[in-house]
Amino acid sequence: GGVSMFHENQIVFLEDSFSSKNEVIHHLTHRENSAVRDADQYERDVLEREASFATYTIDGVAMPHAKSEGVSTPFVAFARLKTPVRWGTEEGEDARMVFLIGVPKVGNTADNNLHLKILAALSKKLIHDEFRAQLSTANSTKDIYALLQEIEGAF
After folding, report:
1. Model-level pTM?
2. Which residues of 97-116 are buried (b: 16+ CB within 10 A; e: fewer)?
3. Which of 12, 53, 63, 66 could make a disulfide contact with 45, Cβ separation 3.0–4.6 Å?
4. 21-64 per-position pLDDT tens digit
């Protein structure tokens, strides 16, 4: 990939409890982020995507995402929740690790499937128990950043 999509300031350990995934999404979409030019628009697009297809994956990991006019450059943010939040449609689909993905909405360019590439690269890595364990036990955002950079090459 060219430009890095991971930034250490977009990795966060959230101590607060959130009552719903929508609250988590609101919080994450509105964090200070130079890649987002309209947080409200981006949040709406993420929620719309989520409503049509819940983005819970496996083992406590969710990957909310959207192509949005509110996003100026592609990015992946990561949050680890102290208190898991119900995310999927099934009982037990509670997320404690959230990858928030944002991709600009552009015409029919080569980047049109970028969010799919990012989702695929993340999923491929997250299949590995060891990788998920490292993400859930890392003690600092720096350690998480280092782990995520292993994926960067796959975009």
Report:
1. 0.92
2. bbbbbbbbeeeeeeeeebbe
3. 66
4. 999 999 999 999 999 999 999 999 999 999 998 899 999 999 99
Q: What does the DSSP assignment read for the chain?
A: --S----GGGEEEE-S--SSHHHHHHHHHTS--TTBS-HHHHHHHHHHHHHHS--B-STTEE--EEEETTBSS-EEEEEEEEEEEE-SSSTT-EEEEEEEEEEE--SSSGGGGHHHHHHHHHHHHHTSHHHHHHHHH--SHHHHHHHHHHHHTT-
Q: What are phi and psi of 92, to 5 degrees?
A: 85, -5
* Token output for 46: 């993420």
What is the number of residues in the chain?
155
Residue 136 CA to residue 37 CA, distance in Å, equals 30
Tens digits of per-residue pLDDT, 2-22? Answer: 558 899 899 999 999 999 999
